[in-house]
Amino acid sequence: MLTGAVSFSYGVVSGIASEIPELDPGRPPPVEQDGYIYAADGKTVLAVLRGRESRIVVTSDRISPLAKQAVVAVEDRRFWEHRGVDLRGIARAAWADVRHKEFVQGGSTITQQFVKNAYTEDARSVSRKLKEAILAWQLERRWSKDRILTSYLNTVYFGNGAYGVEMASRVYFQKRAKDLTLAEAALLAGIPANPSEYDVISNREAARDRRDTVLRLMVEQGLITEAAYEDARRSRLPDPDDVALPGTVGPAQYFAEYVKQQLVRYYGDDEVFGGGLRVYTSIELELQRLARESIRKWLPGRKGPSAALVAIDPRDGRVLAIMGGKSFRRSQFNLAVQGKRQAGSAFKPFVLAAALAKGIAPETTFESKPVTIGGWSVSNYEGSYLGLVDVETGTIYSDNSVYAQLAAQVGPDSIRTIARALGIKSRLDRHLGISLGTEEVNPLEMARAFASLANAGARVDGKVLRNEPRAVLRVVDGRRIDSNEPVHRQVLDPDDAALVTSILHKVVEQGTGRAAALEDRPAAGKTGTTENHGDAWFVGYTPQLAVAVWVGYRSRVKPMLTEFEGEPVAGGTFPALIWRTFMKSALKHLDEPPEEFPVPAEHYAAPVTVVTRNGRWLLDDGSCPDSRQIVFFAGFEPDEQAAC
């Protein structure tokens, strides 16, 4: 029978020992800790990235020696002497519990408790206790006592959502762990044994008694004097109203939520929430304030239309401001990122860019009149027509008829390709209506696409997050630093971009965007107004700043027929006025001096009579009934003749 018992015991120990390599205490276990999203100043916290356990991991020198002494006094007085398991401590703890008529000390050592928190499951069993003992013994051979104690203090639960002594210090006393007083250290040291029983909010008397017990143990162990004990006992407990996890809601919440979405797509939920990331972003809080004020100046009421605004530095792609709604507290729906609406004529610059890329010069003329193309009927705003005009004039005055005819020559695939290359990521269907902005987009991608035009046709991506607006500049993950440096991708010929800009400059100077004109510097942009005035846009830029403004009703497309001083809301009203107000104050704050746009190179162009066959241009042989004249840049005209 003795032989059987020995064999059984050996089998149990061997089975447990076989699992030990998987629980290698030579490597620190991963623990959840809070991460942070910071504004451009690198200091202001926009959001706390919490996991299930809210924790801030700190090094030994950032923990008060008083906190270490208090925890050792109440949890494991022989911590500095034993080798992970303390048989004398188990007996002494039992006697202490009887003498104090309450749970004063546990039988497990601090090393065993750390092993339980970090390496083994929480279920009570003989197997788990044996694992804890073996791992504790291994750990004591590989780690210093101070490292074990620091790791324990970083992992243990202190109640009220606080894991680790640093977070507990902030939750209970709004200070760092290295600054804890004796009374504060004793209070925290007493909590882990039973966080609900010693809760300073719901059980204040029990919490006070527990603190005083810890202080008395420190006196008995010669760690503090009787006078220090009496002085600490007179200290007040923290006010229950002050006991809470540090706030997770900072400024620029629409922006912060957008950043979280970017991070999750790249790093995954587990690493973002509770992974301890330090995320440094591009948002300029002063520009956020100026954006909010600019919108409120023109849309002060709660009942009227809402507005979204996005500002981007076209030179390096940094997202400087995102206004996604009037109040994040009332609605978390981000109009700037999630609010997809038809862009109307604000989409026309992409048609123009696609035409230039195909060699169609802006001197090409079309007759402004009601047209029907393949069953698609197009008419102009308020039924006004310009007669025979070139593409440049059609852009300045936002002529739908001219652009529908231009789109028929360019083709929807080319328009879609250019829009995507510049920065539009929303779904774009292949139909001619795309030329008049019938596809739904959001203000963020419109600002980014126009920023690509301002940046000489180069879209700015991030080195790490790639084809995304550069809202995240740097992510620090422990010792690893992911630097999301700007990457410039030339997606449009620089001279084509300069030509688009020169025409959009005339839109602001003399066309539909006159309300956006800046007195002290050139600006380029485009208005957009959808059918029945359900959405209104102005998207524009200077060489230093690209900004998209959308105005409409948040929850649904509702015609805005009287909201602008009794008149309809169009792109040249509220959106252009908000844009102008913001740009003036933002450029002044950024201390950006006036700067001229690049001058497009002189180009030679000549009219050529062509026909379209299977998506290709062919020269008219003189007898084609459906021919038309297009002005081509030199070298782009077709060289093959049709056989009509």
Main sheet properties: 5 strands, mixed
- Percent of residues in helices comes to 25-40%
| Proportion of strand residues | 15-25%
Mean pLDDT: 90
Strand tally is 23
Class inferred from helices and paired strands: alpha+beta
Using the CA coordinates, give the radius of gyration.
34 Å
* Distance between the ends: 108 Å
Shape field: elongated
Our count of helices gives 20
Low-confidence segments, given as residue ranges, are 5-14, 16-23
Strand order of the largest sheet: 2-1-5-15-16
Sum this structure up briefly.
It contains 20 helices and 23 strands. It has 644 residues and is an alpha+beta fold.
Describe this structure in words.
There is one protein chain. By secondary structure, the protein is an alpha+beta fold. The protein is 37% helix and 17% strand. It has 20 helices and 23 strands. The protein has a 5-stranded mixed beta sheet with strand order 2-1-5-15-16, with helices on one face. It has a 5-stranded antiparallel beta sheet with strand order 7-6-20-19-18, with helices on both faces. Strand 18 (524-529) and strand 19 form a beta hairpin. Helix 2 crosses helix 9 (204-220) and helix 8 (182-190) crosses helix 9 (204-220). The model is unreliable at 5-14 and 16-23 (pLDDT under 50).
